[in-house]
């Protein structure tokens, strides 16, 4: 079966598609019919679905960035460790020198985190323009 045929005959819906459909339903059908606290809560729910959607998209890049950092600065770290936490501890213990390369990692990580949490945050665009 070719990839093209497989795509045309599949019956499964991806989690991204489901999240997008629910988010669209909330924003286009539910939100306009609500007011007050219920409207606010529906908007929050739609925003949470957006965060989940962006985390699915950007999460692999964030994990790869962290894995690369762990190899570089914490080569003996176990595979199930919380990499950012361990990097923070090593930095606090002066086991890592905060050189340009480490700062570049932190900047790249922060841009990915901001892209997941709130890509329209004004300071993110400023930081991205300066840091890239």
Keywords for this entry:
132 residues, mainly alpha, elongated
Folded structure, characterized:
The longest helix has 38 residues. The protein has one domain. 75% of the residues lie in helices and 0% in strands. By secondary structure, the protein is mostly helical. The chain is elongated.
Write the layout of secondary structure elements.
Blueprint: H1 3-9, H2 15-30, H3 36-73, H4 83-92, H5 100-117, H6 122-131
Give a brief outline of the structure.
The chain has 132 residues and is mainly α. The protein contains six helices and no strands.
Uncertain runs are none
Rg for CA atoms: 20 Å
Largest sheet: none
- Alpha-beta classification: mainly alpha
Task: Give the termini separation.
Answer: 42 Å
Counting DSSP H or I runs of 4 or more residues, the number of helices is 6
Q: How would you describe the shape? A: elongated
Order of helices and strands: HHHHHH
The average pLDDT is 90
| Strand content bin | under 5%
The count of domains is 1
């Amino acid at each position: 079966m070719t990839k093209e045929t497989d795509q045309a005959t599949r019956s499964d819906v991806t989690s991204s598609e489901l999240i997008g459909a629910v988010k669209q339903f909330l924003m286009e059908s539910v939100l306009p019919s609500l007011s007050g606290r219920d409207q606010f809560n529906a908007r929050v729910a739609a925003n949470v679905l957006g965060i989940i959607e962006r985390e699915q998209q950007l999460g692999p890049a964030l994990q790869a960035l962290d894995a690369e950092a762990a190899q570089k600065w914490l080569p003996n770290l176990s595979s199930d460790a919380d990499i950012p936490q361990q990097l923070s501890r090593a930095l606090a213990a002066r086991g890592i020198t905060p050189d340009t390369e480490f700062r570049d990692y932190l900047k790249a990580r922060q841009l990915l985190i901001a892209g997941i949490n709130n890509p329209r945050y004004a300071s993110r665009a400023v930081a991205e323009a300066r840091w890239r």
